[in-house]
Fold this protein.
Amino acid sequence: MHSFDLPLLLGQAQAQGGEQGALGGIMTFIPFILIIGVFYFLIIRPQNKKQKDTQKMLSALKKGDKAITIGGIHGTICAVRESSVVLKVDDNTKIEFSRSAIASITAVAKEDDSSEEKTTEEKSEK
């Protein structure tokens, strides 16, 4: 090798080392980005979806629905108020609960409109 080639080779080696250093810095953040992505898709996103479904269910409560409270009490909704729901749990027993205390709806009340449509259809067939 000639002596004038040595500084040229050292300059190329330093340039490549600098590029690898920048890439190495980015590569250290990739595992953190992947962990955040996994947390989002496995924990945060399903929780947000469940919360939206619960809010939709609570806003759609109506008289006649069969509901279960978070305490495990089964009953039929006999009145819906702005922030509470009255459940009929026995013949003469009614209990008022906060809307947020309703855990699930087991049976949805039949719409009055559908029964009217059936009777109208039956009359028209005769």
User: Anything to note?
Assistant: The CA atoms of residues 115 and 121 lie 10 Å apart.
